[in-house]
Design a protein that fits this description.
Elements (H helix, E strand, L loop, with lengths): L15 E4 H20 L9 E4 L5 E4 L2 H7 L5 H16 L4 H20 L4 H22 L1 E2 L5 H12 L8 H15 L10 E7 L7 E3 L2 E3 L11 E10 L19 H24 L4 E4 L5 H9 L3 E3 L4 H11 L3 E2 L11 E11 L2 E7 L7 E7 L2 H24 L1 E4 L3 H15 L5 H12 L1 H9 L4 H13 L5 E4 L4 E4 L6 E3 H19 L3 E4 L24
Parallel strand pairs: 5-14, 8-9, 8-11, 9-10
Antiparallel strand pairs: 1-19, 2-3, 4-15, 6-14, 7-13, 8-12, 12-13, 15-18, 16-17
Helix pairs in contact: 1-3, 1-4, 2-3, 3-4, 3-16, 4-13, 4-16, 5-12, 5-13, 5-16, 6-7, 6-11, 7-11, 8-9, 12-13, 12-15
């Protein structure tokens, strides 16, 4: 007699599980969809996306990482592709679309190999070999650059902004970006955090300016304080200028009105004392990270000191860098050596808000780029473009290596990778060829986004490269092949090396997944209510 064999469940109820080829197909499909989404934004003729979130806030952008972050992607494999964009953004600040499109294409080509029954582990190995070789080829291809090559740096900044909303005034903005980076450079090292990008709606992009110092969105504490201070000597205080509460519980008993008055006078004297300590150093501007008592504000105004309270810690650090001041936590030790210097400190009204400008510092190691634009969306997009430009110039100076753009390095890379594939035996060779083909997605996308014929243009481009023209790229405005270096389309090498490495890493990771186990999340929910609603609370109207 046949027994009824009980099925065995090892996973909780409602868990979904996809295995083998289906899992790979789904994951690759998700990754390809993410790449397709941002693909149309690539290049000088790339278009923008408008994303409306659940609250109705609108973002109009061309920036890969911004699009992917605003889209709130749910699919687990798609999230891994978004990570590629984030890494690229954190490392360089530009090239996010390139990295994502490359990752998508690597997976698409891998899928064709999977259909031919090539094992995922073989493809992964081939991709790893190819990635190592690609880094080698890219490094050989790059040109050296020094901080004195201002012309090249300017072209890098312009290239970063081409195809973004800031394109029409990229000349003005590129000069500002390069100046800013060169100002904050210390012994060949540039910290991007020392370039503060402030955006203000109103005016036009041409009104954007570089301020040799810092702009903070704070106003002076009293109308009796001077609005402009020339030759400012700045004290940075990181403690409250208020009467501190005692550490232990203390009781003060007051029996007569005279004692009350004496107590209040004493408080006032303590505050006056604090202000005296600050002004004794010769300071005529005081920026405080914490609170400032109103009585102290009165004394500071009397002394003609320009004071601001509750400045953020990051701004305090930048102001210290810009003015050479030291941040003091103890008023007793404050001396004139701790003060910073700025040519002018003034309160200005920009739009409908008051700002404190700390300008004309002697040798500022922190500066502010003030970005202006006609509407909020325009200003936001220009800010993103300028951030990209600053990131690119910084990345170029950091490694001292640059390449031409316009699809030239990718085409050269693909050509040399194919030669390398021929030297391999075994099935890895197929994966290396797939990797080489994937590199061509960048020039091909540039051509397609410009509305040109990809087949003819790519043929011309490959022909130019086989004639040893390593900087042959696509002029998307004419549809012809050009010398990208001579045309001034220049990018830091780091963009390409970072994009190739993170795209191949994520492609390998997705390929190696053959089983997706997704729990339904029922177990995490609250225990069910007992029947009959809230027991014991009968008679209460809800």
């Amino acid at each position: 007699m046949a027994q009824n064999i009980q099925p065995i469940f090892i996973l909780p109820e409602g868990t979904q599980r996809t295995l083998g080829r289906d899992a790979q197909r789904n994951n690759i499909m998700a990754a390809k969809l993410v790449a397709e989404t941002v693909r149309t934004t690539l290049g000088p003729k790339g278009m923008d996306k408008m994303i409306v979130d659940s609250l109705g806030d609108v973002t109009v952008t061309n920036d890969g990482v911004t699009i992917l972050e605003e889209m709130n992607i749910e699919h687990p494999s798609a999230k891994m592709i978004v990570e590629v964009a984030k890494t690229q953004e954190n490392e360089i600040g530009d090239g996010t679309t390139t990295a994502v499109v490359l990752a998508g294409e690597l997976l698409k080509n891998a899928e064709e190999l999977l259909d031919k029954d090539v094992h995922p582990a073989v493809i992964s190995r081939g991709y790893r070999l190819a990635e190592a070789k690609a880094q080698e080829i890219l490094n050989e291809m790059a040109e050296k650059i020094t901080p004195d090559n201002e012309e090249v740096l300017k072209k890098i900044a312009q290239t970063a902004m081409t195809g973004k909303g800031a394109e029409y005034s990229k000349d003005t903005l590129a000069v500002l970006a390069v100046k800013a980076v060169k100002m904050v450079e210390e012994d060949g090292y540039v910290d991007k955090d020392n370039i503060k990008i402030e955006k203000r709606t109103g005016g036009s992009v041409e009104d954007s300016e570089l301020i040799k110092g810092i702009v903070i969105d704070k106003e002076r504490l009293s109308a009796n304080m001077p609005r402009v201070v020339k030759n400012a000597k700045i004290a940075l205080i990181d403690r409250e200028i208020e009467i501190k509460k005692t550490e232990m519980d203390a009781n003060i008993q007051i029996k007569t009105p005279d004692q009350m008055q004496a107590f209040l006078d004493q408080e006032e004297n303590m505050l006056r004392d604090m202000v005296e300590k600050i002004t004794a150093t010769g300071a005529n501007v005081m920026l405080c990270q914490k609170g400032v008592d109103d009585v102290a504000v009165h004394f500071l105004a009397k002394k003609g000191v320009y004071a601001v309270r509750r400045v953020s810690e990051s701004d305090m650090k930048k102001i210290a860098k810009a003015t050479g001041a030291k941040i003091s936590t103890n008023l007793k030790d404050l001396s004139k050596d701790d003060l910073g210097f700025a040519g002018t400190v003034e309160e200005r009204k920009v739009g409908d808000e008051e700002f404190t400008y700390i300008m004309d510092c002697k040798n500022p190691k922190a500066v502010t780029l003030l970005i202006r634009g006609g509407t909020e969306h325009v200003t936001n997009e220009i800010e993103r473009a300028v951030t990209d430009a600053v990131g690119d110039v910084t990345a170029a100076l950091k490694t001292g290596m640059v390449v031409a753009g316009a699809g030239a390095p990718e085409t050269e890379l693909a050509m040399q990778m194919r030669k390398y594939a021929d030297t391999l035996s075994g099935r890895e060779q197929l994966a290396v060829q797939a990797f080489a083909d994937a590199m061509e997605v960048i020039p091909r996308t540039l051509v397609e986004n410009a509305g040109l014929d990809p087949i003819d243009t790519m043929t011309d481009l490959k022909a130019a490269h086989s004639k040893k023209q390593k900087w042959a790229g696509i002029d998307v405005f004419t549809g012809k092949v050009m010398d990208a270096w001579k045309k001034g389309v220049i990018e830091p090498l780091k963009i390409k090396t970072q994009a190739v490495s993170s795209a191949s890493e994520v492609a390998v990771m997705v390929l190696r997944i053959d089983d997706v186990i997704a729990s339904s999340g029922k177990a995490d929910k609250m225990p069910q209510m007992p029947p009959g609603g809230m027991g014991g609370m009968g008679g209460m109207d809800y």
